[in-house]
Amino acid sequence: MNGPQLLLRQLRREAEGIVSFEFVSADGAPLPLFTAGAHIDLQLPEGLLRSYSLVNDPGEHHRYVVTVDRAANSRGGSAWMHSTPRPGDRLASSLPVNNFPLYEEAPLSIFIAGGIGITPFMSMAARLNTLRRAWRVHYAVRSRQRAAYVQELASLDRTGDAVNMHCTGEDMERPDIAAIVREAPAGSHLYCCGPNGMLDAFAGACSGLPPQRIHLERFSASQEAATAGGYEVQLARTGQTLSVEPGRTLLDALLDAGIPVQYSCSQGICGTCCTPVLEGTPDHRDDYLTHEEKAANRAMMVCCSGSLTQRLVLDI
Questions:
Q1: Cα separation of 212 and 187, whole Å?
Q2: What is the pTM of this model?
Q3: What are 113-124's pLDDT values in tens digits?
Q4: Which of 24, 55, 89, 260 is the most buried (most CB within 10 A)?
């Protein structure tokens, strides 16, 4: 990987089923800088690569803090993170990447978070405090026991009314996303990170607003991976041709053939597996590329997307 070797300094339980991991540089050098909303990829055993938002203040150069929810349907990443790492262990990391950047000039930033979706907003709130810019967060969780970073949010809240909690399993109402968007002051920027139902409601509520004011980040796919198969993929660099059988994904075919493909989320949301397309029309199933990028058909996420044509040629 192209980033630093990280040394795990501390694990901390942040809420029920949620643990934070504090990493420092393994060689003692300052860590590469990051911006609010950024994430890093961690190299886990057995070739697993997982993306985690950086939670700490971007002004800190000595540590990276990530937070991991123990997912009930874990594909290996969160289960391993919750069971295996101990202080003193080393992990390889990517350089910080930001696909969910903060617009720092907004007079007000409004964050809508569901569950573990609070993580990117922690660094954003810290950065906005440094800039002395206003922010507001609406944080929905099933219960108070599942609410991470409540005390930290309270300490960041310099006005005393910036944090709005919604514990949906305790007879509290869910955030009224349509009302939040409707009542947002002119010029404010709105952000959402959480489960797909929340994100879909947010996107619908924001449909009439200028797109540059709307920001969302998914941590699960909005649609199923393409598994229809029945097409061939040619690898331009080697000339090798692979058949993608029905019931299999393109990524399955590449991995079965021993092709060293970098991938992380397997759901088309992180961008790790973005691959140039030289010929053919992909069946785009990702939430990473823009509508314009999908229409151009010059790249695809091989972890979840397939082909609408009988043949794809990829720059691999």
A1: 10
A2: 0.80
A3: 999 999 999 999
A4: 55
